[in-house]
Design brief:
Radius of gyration: 26 Å
Structural class: alpha+beta
Low-confidence stretches: none
Order of helices and strands: HHHEEEEEEEEHEEEH
Mean pLDDT: 88
Distance between the termini: 37 Å
Shape: elongated
Number of domains: 2
Largest sheet: 6 strands, antiparallel
Number of strands: 11
C-alpha cells in the first residue's frame, strides 16, 4: 500500500494497461487496412451462417468449412501487420516492469536463501560467502553435489541494499541484495553467459566467462497483486485489463480489430 492507502502496484498495472491498450488500438487503426478487415470479417460471418442454414447439405457444409479456413487466414494476415509495430516495444515494456512488479524485496528480519550454482562440483566445499554488516547467516551452508549447488540462509537486520560476495576457486563475485518493502527494481539472479535468460530474468551484468560460478540466485518472494478480490500475477492482470480496455476503446473509436 502507498502512503495514502492506495494499492500502488494495482494502480500502476491499471494505469499502464489502459495506456497501452489505447496506444495499441490507435496504432492498429492507422497501420491496418480497416476496409479489408471489415470485408474479411463479413465473409467469415457469412460462411458461419451458411453452416447453420445448410447443415443438412453435406457439400455446402464442406465448402463452408474450407471458406472459413481461408477467411480466417486472410483476417489473421491483415491483423498481424499492425502487431509488428507494437510487439517489440511491448516486450521491452513488460521486461522492464517485471523488474519492479514481478518480485518483492525480502523483508528485514525475514530469512531468505541465496543459491549458487558452480560448474565444478569439487569446488563446492571451497566456496565461501562474505557478508556486509547487518547481514548474517542463520544456518550452515547446504551443499548439493548432485546439482552442483550450494545454498545459504541469510537474514538482514534492517532495510537497505547489500552487496554479497561469493568466493570460489580463488575468485570473488558479487550480487546485489535488496531488503525493504514497496516497489524496488530487483534482479533475482545473476548469470554467466545465458544471454536470453539474462534478458528475461536478470537486471545485472553477466558474470565473467571464466567464472566457476554459473549463477547466483536470490530467492525473492513473487509479488501477488490484490485486485477485485483475487490475488494476481501482474502479467496476467495486465493482459486481462489490456484486453478488456482494448475492446472498450475500439468500440468507442469505431475501429475494426
Amino acid at each position: 500500500m502507498g502512503s495514502l492507502g492506495v494499492n500502488l502496484p494495482a494502480a500502476i498495472v491499471v494505469a499502464i494497461s489502459l495506456g497501452v491498450s489505447l496506444v495499441m488500438v490507435v496504432v492498429f487503426r492507422y497501420t491496418s487496412d480497416q476496409k479489408a478487415i471489415r470485408v474479411a470479417k463479413d465473409h467469415l460471418k457469412a460462411h458461419l451462417l451458411a453452416l447453420r442454414l445448410f447443415q443438412d447439405q453435406i457439400p455446402v457444409v464442406l465448402r463452408s468449412y474450407g471458406r472459413i479456413v481461408l477467411a480466417t487466414g486472410r483476417y489473421l494476415r491483415l491483423a498481424f501487420k499492425p502487431l509488428l509495430f507494437v510487439i517489440v516495444p511491448l516486450m521491452f515494456l513488460i521486461l522492464q516492469l517485471d523488474r519492479y512488479l514481478g518480485w518483492m524485496p525480502v523483508e528485514a528480519g525475514q530469512p531468505f536463501l541465496i543459491k549458487v550454482l558452480i560448474d565444478n562440483p569439487k569446488a563446492l566445499s571451497g566456496a565461501s560467502l562474505q557478508l556486509p554488516d547487518r547481514l548474517s547467516t542463520t544456518a550452515p551452508a547446504v551443499h548439493v553435489p548432485s546439482e552442483s549447488e550450494i545454498a545459504w540462509r541469510l537474514v538482514a537486520e534492517k532495510r537497505g541494499e547489500y552487496i554479497v560476495k561469493i568466493q570460489a576457486s580463488g575468485q570473488r563475485f558479487s550480487k546485489l541484495v535488496i531488503v525493504g518493502a514497496g516497489l524496488s527494481r530487483l534482479s533475482p539472479v545473476r548469470f554467466r553467459g545465458k544471454f536470453w535468460e539474462r534478458i528475461f530474468l536478470s537486471g545485472e551484468s553477466a558474470l565473467p566467462e571464466n567464472s566457476p560460478i554459473e549463477s547466483i540466485d536470490i530467492q525473492y518472494p513473487p509479488r501477488k497483486i490484490a485486485f477485485v478480490g483475487f490475488e494476481w500475477n501482474w502479467i496476467w492482470l495486465f493482459f486481462v485489463l489490456s484486453l478488456a480496455a482494448g475492446f472498450l476503446f475500439k468500440s468507442i473509436l469505431g475501429i475494426e480489430i
